[in-house]
UniProtKB/TrEMBL annotation:
PROSITE patterns: IG_LIKE. One of its GO terms (biological process) is synapse organization. This is Ig-like domain-containing protein. It comes from the Eukaryota. CDD domains: Ig. PANTHER family: DEFECTIVE PROBOSCIS EXTENSION RESPONSE 4-RELATED, DEFECTIVE PROBOSCIS EXTENSION RESPONSE DPR -RELATED. Residues 42-129, 132-235 form the Ig-like domain. One of its GO terms (cellular component) is neuron projection membrane. It holds the Pfam family ig. It comes from Pieris brassicae (White butterfly).
């Protein structure tokens, strides 16, 4: 019997597992009770957070707290395939992204997933090697966090007006530690000119860039880059003089307005064509009548 088979036997694991897509179902699992004295038996801290969210590419952490562990060991299991990831502080997975973190004297055993990916989403189990074993289930969700600039991909601003850009880090599990603004490949330089300000609210994961009294040289590609999210960009055009109606504050022509305009043009073209044809026919008839009168016998 290989060491892995012994581990499966020791932790009561079967040959295959099912990873439910419903986080609530894994929390309904009944935990066994260790055959030890109630005063000293290992047990879980029920206040532990059991649903966790991480951003793609960022580390994910699942925290399991075990009281009165004694000489037992703590293991982390991936439930979809019943794969043993760690035992104690040792890793038993070929995927080096998985590791167990523990400080001597602490009752916390943490599973860390470095560079989390969407495929890491699912159920995990913290097990204690009592007889019978006890276990506690956790659910991990790995999301793609992406920034969004509310003005859309393109913005037209009249020279002398303000450039006002708002960026939101969507689906960020934690507030970003910073949100940078770039113009082209360079960070927006506050010292380059006056009238530039940035207001970032970590709680709402929002950042606002204001450039007062914009000039044509302020045109360019502006990028919002939160610390833990994919970036977003907008092309800003600072236009001198009057702008076409479609450019007003980045406005667009609505579908009803476009259809109405198209219908008017078609109607105008039809009437023009009809009038031109009628005029041509009238002139032709007049010319034929004149010819007939000229050729008639006197």
């Amino acid at each position: 019997m290989t060491y892995r088979k012994k581990l499966h036997s020791s932790w009561g694991l079967s040959a295959g597992g099912v990873d439910s897509t419903d986080p609530d179902s894994i929390f309904a699992v009944s935990n066994g009770t260790a055959e030890t004295e109630p005063a000293v038996q290992p047990h879980f801290d029920n206040a532990t957070k059991r649903e966790n969210t991480a951003a793609v590419g960022q580390p994910a952490y699942l925290h399991c707290r075990v009281k009165n562990l004694g000489d037992r060991s703590v293991s982390w299991i991936r439930k979809r395939d019943l794969h043993i990831l760690t035992v104690g502080v040792h890793t038993y997975s070929s995927d080096a992204r998985f590791a167990a973190l523990h400080t001597d004297g602490s009752d916390e055993w943490t599973l860390r997933v470095a560079h989390a990916q969407p495929r890491d989403s699912g159920a995990y189990e913290c097990q204690v090697s009592t007889e019978p074993k006890i276990s506690l289930s956790f659910w991990l969700t790995v999301v793609v966090s992406k920034a969004e600039i509310l003005s859309g991909p393109e913005l037209f601003v009249r020279a002398g007006s303000d450039i006002n850009l708002t960026c939101i880090a969507r689906h960020a599990p934690d507030p970003p530690s910073f949100i940078y603004w770039y113009r082209g490949t360079n960070v927006v330089n506050y010292a380059q000119r006056g009238g530039i300000s940035v207001e970032t609210e970590q709680r709402t994961r929002t950042s606002r860039l204001l450039i007062a009294r914009a000039l044509p040289r302020d045109s360019g590609n502006y990028t919002c880059a939160p610390s833990s999210s994919d970036s977003a960009s907008v092309v800003v055009h600072v236009v001198s003089g009057e702008r076409p109606a479609a450019m007003q504050s980045g406005a667009t022509i609505s579908a009803p307005t476009l259809l109405c305009t198209l219908f008017t043009l078609i109607t105008f073209y039809s009437h023009s064509h009809f009038l031109a044809k009628s005029l041509y026919n009238t002139r032709s008839l007049t010319f034929i009548s004149f010819q007939n009168k000229a050729l008639a016998p006197r």
